[in-house]
Amino acid sequence: MPDQLIFGMEVVLNGLMAGVLYALVALGFVLIYKASGIFNYAQGVMALFAAMTLVGMMEGRVPFSHLINAIFGTEIHHFGWHLPGLAAVLLTMLIMVALAWIVNQLIFRHLVNQEPIILFMATIGLAYFLEGFGDMMWGSDIKKLDVGLPQGINLMIDETTFNIFGYGFFIDNLDLVATGVAALLVVALVIFAQYSKQGRAMRAVADDHQAALSVGISLNFIWVMVWSLAGFVALVAGIMWGTKSGVQFSLSLIALKALPVLMLGGFTSIPGAIVGGLIIGVGEKLFEFTVGPLVGGATENWFAYVLALLFLVFRPQGLFGEKIIERV
Amino acid sequence: MEKETQMLDATPRDETLLEVNNIEVIYNHVILVLKGVSLNVPKGGITALLGGNGAGKTTTLKAISNLLRSERGEVTKGSITYRGERVQDLMPSDLVKKGVVQVMEGRHCFEHLTVEENLLTGAYTRGSSRGEIDADLNMVYDYFPRLKERRKSQAGYTSGGEQQMCAIGRALMSRPETILLDEPSMGLAPQLVEQIFSIVKSLNEEQGYTFLLAEQNTNVALRFAHYGYILESGRVVMDGDARSLRENPDVKEFYLGMSDEGRKSFRDVRSYRRRKRWLA
């Protein structure tokens, strides 16, 4: 087999792995969009906040320590304990649920029946607030996150591919875990949205707030539930990205990569987020591999957006998005 | 006046379920929409709320079902009681649990959900078993056979009449006692209007549901209802049982488009001699 082809295969595989991570972020967007028609600009920051909180919990950092030290002239930074990964994940999840509740109480409860653009602006405000709040709470340094997920080259794949092609593929264990987790999440979320009572109510709320109210669905409950779910997805995405490249501000920017993923997959489709993520992941790696050398590289930065633009022109609802039903 | 209302009503079986007492509604803190509306809804009856555009019919229904708040409206005076219990501070979901459900003007089906899923969301507030819900689903399909044929289609792709049936069916799924039906005739062909009203009538007679319906089509509404209230710019200007309203010369002229002297030219139209009605 020619070297180019084998190398190409590895590129595709790596693209798939990167795509899974994009999809994880995109999933959070889809959930909130589906249930409230809100494009949640703060989703990326939520992932960052979740990851920061997780690190803070595990290392026993004192929240707001800089603030406290500045005001009282103390020198406290750590409680002096270390929490095991699982306990910290559970605690962080509780905090994300609390965050969902607070966000709903303070912001979205008061914006029922408002234009989508107003809700969108509210999430931009939320994003900046949460970003600053996270920094104030846990400090803005780059943090290392290790909840005990396997990392490094997967030797089995390396060995098998070496035996077949005479060339070992480099696949990170963490990416494999991320793939498994993402698949599980999607299956669970699809079943929840399609077949459970609360999932049906969630879709009903997305279609028509007023009608949902009129049949006795509590918007507050559904919204807190959905924001909690999105918080959970953000936590998972935060763990994966944080483990991979450290918990730092740039984590919140991956949210921008989720945008083309959403345009491809459709804003309202949970499987669409995954397929969109995979297409973008593979597409951008393959494009860089094939066309990159011809145009001088750095195609990864724009490829996804150009693809998204094309989709906006020819298929605005995305691959799996709900058709916009318009009765005349 | 209240006493007279009671006496006028032909059917003595009534126990008053819903009592609206002199309510005033203000939107956005400045726009006064209802200026003292009072009405009684007896159990097991069909009560009609009539009037032209902007008379306050929908606002009255939304004030009762507590959907006003999400539109920045507020009941500032008066009281609304259901079975003698004050209900105006409840959440809409609590009111549904008490047995009062609204079918909104313009259907408002969940477009991307199938017809059957729409109906199932109606049962959201109930903790019933799957079996009971299935039984109710069949009951709805018995009254609206058309919905059974379309059960797997997305509601957004069904016709206006089917959507109206879907909205009524969805309300039935909450096992209500009282249904607030807002403008069921809107945008439908006369034949369909007739069909929907006769289903409402049979639901009322066979299943004992109480209806309060807001309607512009005075003619149809007064044929099917037992009692009617006529609203005009936020006030009740007239009320009476359906037959007496149908025969009232003012109603005939201004709402039914008939008069004793046959059709008239616009030049001869009298100015409205409104029967004033003041409540404390």
Overall description:
- The complex is a heterodimer of chains A (328) and B (280).
- Chain A has 328 residues and is an all-alpha fold.
- Chain A has a domain at 36-255.
- Chain A contains 14 helices and no strands.
- Chain B has 280 residues and is an alpha/beta fold.
- Chain B has a domain at 16-99 and 178-187 and 215-278: Rossmann fold.
- Chain B is built from 11 helices and 10 strands.
- In chain B, strand 4 and strand 5 form a beta hairpin.
- In chain B, helix 4 (115-122) runs parallel beside helix 7.
- The longest helix of chain B is centred in the C-terminal third of the chain and has 18 residues, at 190-207.
- The termini of chain B are close together.
- Classes of the chains: A mainly alpha (328), B alpha/beta (280).
- The A-B interface holds A 112-113, 197, 200-201, 203-204, 206-218, 268, 322, 325, 327 and B 65, 67, 70-71, 91-93, 95-97, 101-104, 108-113, 117-118, 120-122, 124-125, 154, 156-157, 170-171, 174.
Notable traits:
heterodimer, A: 328 residues, mainly alpha, globular, B: 280 residues, alpha/beta, Rossmann fold, six-stranded mixed β-sheet, four-stranded antiparallel β-sheet, 11 helices, disordered N terminus, Amino acid/amide ABC transporter ATP-binding protein 2, HAAT family (chain B), ATP binding (chain B), ABC_transporter-like_ATP-bd (chain B)
Structure described in brief:
Chain A has helices at residues 3-36, 43-59, 65-72, 85-106, 116-138, 155-165, 173-195, 197-207, 209-214, 219-245, 254-265, 270-290, 292-295, 303-314. In chain A, 45% of the residues are buried. Chain A is mostly helical and 328 residues long.
State the major sheet of chain B: 6 strands, mixed
Largest interface: A-B, 24 and 33 residues
Radius of gyration of chain B: 19 Å
What share of residues are in beta strands of chain B?
15-25%
CATH class of the domain at 16-99 and 178-187 and 215-278 in chain B: Alpha Beta
How would you state the average pLDDT of chain B, rounded? 87
Quaternary structure: heterodimer
Beta strand count of chain A: 0
The string of secondary-structure elements of chain B, in order, is HEEEHEEHEHHHHEHEHEEHH
- Topology order of chain A in helix (H) and strand (E) letters: HHHHHHHHHHHHHH
**What name does CATH use for the topology of the domain at 16-99 and 178-187 and 215-278 in chain B?**
Rossmann fold
Family (chain B): Belongs to the ABC transporter superfamily.
GO molecular function, one term (chain B): ATP hydrolysis activity
Keywords (chain B): Amino-acid transport, ATP-binding, Nucleotide-binding, Transport
GO biological process, one term (chain B): L-amino acid transport
